[in-house]
Amino acid sequence: MTFPSPINIPPGCPFHPRCPLYALKGKPAECREVPPLRPLSGAANHIVSCHFAEESPAVLESPVGSVA
Questions:
Q1: If you compute the radius of gyration of the chain from its CA atoms, what whole number of angstroms results?
Q2: Residue 58's pLDDT is what?
Q3: Mean pLDDT by 10 residues, the chain (68 residues)
Q4: Among 15, 17, 20, 47, CA closest to 34
Q5: Considering only CA atoms, which of 30, 45, 40 is closest in space to residue 60?
Q6: Is this structure's pTM higher than 0.90?
Q7: Measured at the alpha carbon of residue 9, what is the angle toward residues 27 and 2, in degrees to the nearest 5?
Q8: What SS3 class is residue 38?
Q9: Within 10 Å of residue 28's Cβ, how many Cβ atoms?
């Protein structure tokens, strides 16, 4: 896996170049904006900054609280 340069952060969501949902969803326009911090539904005291957090494979395949 390659990581983005910390001095050359991509525009919009900084994770979109390596996000599997970005490609699967056909490079959606939402990813051109930085996602706001918001509570993850169903996870007390857990906030996310992701347009597709509830659809993320890491969230769907892991018990709540085990994803760092």
A1: 13
A2: 60
A3: 78 88 89 90 82 71 49
A4: 15
A5: 40
A6: no
A7: 75
A8: strand
A9: 13
